[in-house]
Amino acid sequence: xxxxxxxxxxxxxxxxxxxxxxxxxxxxxxxxxxxxxxxxxxxxxxxxxxxxxxxxxxxxxxxxxxxxxxxxxxxxxxxxxxxxxxxxxxxxxxxxxxxxxxxxxxxxxxxxxxxxxxxxxxxxxxxxxxxxxxxxxxxxxxxxxxxxxxxxxxxxxxxxxxxxxxxxxxxxxxxxxxxxxxxxxxxxxxxxxxxxxxxxxxxxxxxxxxxxxxxxxxxxxxxxxxxxxxxxxxxxxxxxxxxxxxxxxxxxxxxxxxxxxxxxxxxxxxxxxxxxxxxxxxxxxxxxxxxxxxxxxxxxxxxxxxxxxxxxxxxxxxxxxxxxxxxxxxxxx
Length: 333
Known about the structure:
The protein folds into two domains: 11-70, no CATH class; 90-330, 2-Layer Sandwich (Nucleotidyltransferase, domain 5), CATH 3.30.420.
């Protein structure tokens, strides 16, 4: 009989840093479905094994597979979520974003992921998902999805703090504009950000390439410049390449859990939307604050060349249209 404690030790005991090194290796290539907590990686097990062997690990494919399963990964087939043609510098931009995030976090500076969640109809409308209820007693909702002109829609713009695992959701009631997006970041900073980072000198914003915070939107840059000047902060922005919005951390670290929390619940009022968002929690300790933004944001605001020239913006050498810093001062023309 083998004595207790005999046999080979687990690889995680033999190599205490194995999980950390594996997670670091995968971090730049993580992708999350915004409606699921399940994560997957574009790297194959043999390639992962090859990279770990270069670091001196003596392990096999079965160990890699078991670790990936424990860490929440799975081997999955393709799913039609691609939003556009793949940019040739897509992977390099992911690596650039990952490096910028680590740089800011190492310096104790805030890093936020931002985006607008899907607009939600307010009223007694069907909401996807299922919840337990008495047999034969489902919640009855409208047989159509025509918007109620009086109740309108909820426009949730989210700000997710990567280091603190905390979120802020600004629920607008009309238009998703660049002014609304910048106002949401400003409200996050005033309510949450400056308390968490009293010594902050700069903020890193990770955003999609389109929508109200798209890299081509002039008003987005102008409004961020106003915010930078008001708060005396440098605002660095990194945009995910076109067609990769699902890679944005806020999608699978915050928005997905909000969707799970209000599944099968008709969103009958803005107050209910706010309550359900604030009640969203996770096993990892996610906390979310939420408020209504009743301001009417005008669509179609045009920014002239002269107005844009006043924005003191410094573009990075690598894809300056995606990576840039807005300084809290006027540009000398």
